[in-house]
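Quick one - inputs below.
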Amino acid sequence: ILNVEQSPQSLHVQEGDSTNFTCSFPSSNFYALHWYRWETAKSPEALFVMTLNGDEKKKGRISATLNTKEGYSYLYIKGSQPEDSATYLCAFPNSGGGADGLTFGKGTHLIIQP
Amino acid sequence: EAQVTQNPRYLITVTGKKLTVTCSQNMNHEYMSWYRQDPGLGLRQIYYSMNVEVTDKGDVPEGYKVSRKEKRNFPLILESPSPNQTSLYFCASSLSGKWGYTFGSGTRLTVV
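Output:
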């Protein structure tokens, strides 16, 4: 079983503040690293799939960076808004191609306080 | 609309009564997986399928069966449900490991 860890487990942030959290994963045999956003009462939705060391991806106020050599990825949210409240999951493909699914971290539960 | 359809959304059943949770995707994805979500444990993989007639166990397969007779469908079967299978279940599919997985809307199962 792969070891995918996320920190912190939960995070309270004031509206308008920026924040970031971490995903660590096995640095050997890297193929891809996934980020998902999971809102309460909904299903997880893919944010980013990152494949290249040093890669940075951006979607609106959310961005992610990747360091495959040391096995970590950061997710950043700039100027947090109440609608950013969700659980953010990272996931690592179980094999090189990801055909056998993903191993997920336990997530970072983000709460934006007005 | 491209989607993964899971049914039912909610189910309360009794111990030992066989049930099937259906999952269907309309995106011609080869890869499909089932996960369960339990508090404090995160999403754990039950079974996966790489293609038609190709299925294999994930991390927590005990008490579950799957089949993949057609590309679009990947049902999860609980032959004799037990209370420890009370959980939130998700089906997900993907075109490849470098694409994100698309999740179904989830099935909240309670076994009493």
